[in-house]
Structure formats: C-alpha cells, structure tokens
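Continuing the series of single-chain predictions for the mutant panel. This is the parent chain; the variants come on the following pages.
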Amino acid sequence: MRMGSGGGYGDPLERDPELVLHDVMNGLVSKEIVRDVYGVVLDGRGLEVDLAATERLRSILKRERLRLQE
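Parent structure:
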C-alpha cells in the first residue's frame, strides 16, 4: 500500500542531485518529475546525474521563478 505524504522541507531545487537520483532508483520519484520539480538532468539511461546540465537547468528555473514574482 502506498500513501501520499508531505511535500518535504525546503526548496526542491536545492536538493542534492544524487539524492534525487537515489529516489528515482528506489521508485519514489519518476524520471519525468525530476527535471520539472527538482531541476535534475539525468543521462539518457536515467542512471547518472548530468551535473553541468543540472546546474544550467536549475539556474533557468530560478530565474523563471523571479520573473513570476514580478
């Protein structure tokens, strides 16, 4: 049985990308969600984090947030 729970604590864009990958590997988060919610870019197989691409994506997502606050 699976149940929904709290959304966690803190900004998902600040979560350690390797911990996000660990959650994917354990079936807690889908590969599709990690990009949009956590700003983490996985390699083509979804087995490794692309750190450079993750940093770029997170920067873009943070800038978009700032524009939405204006």
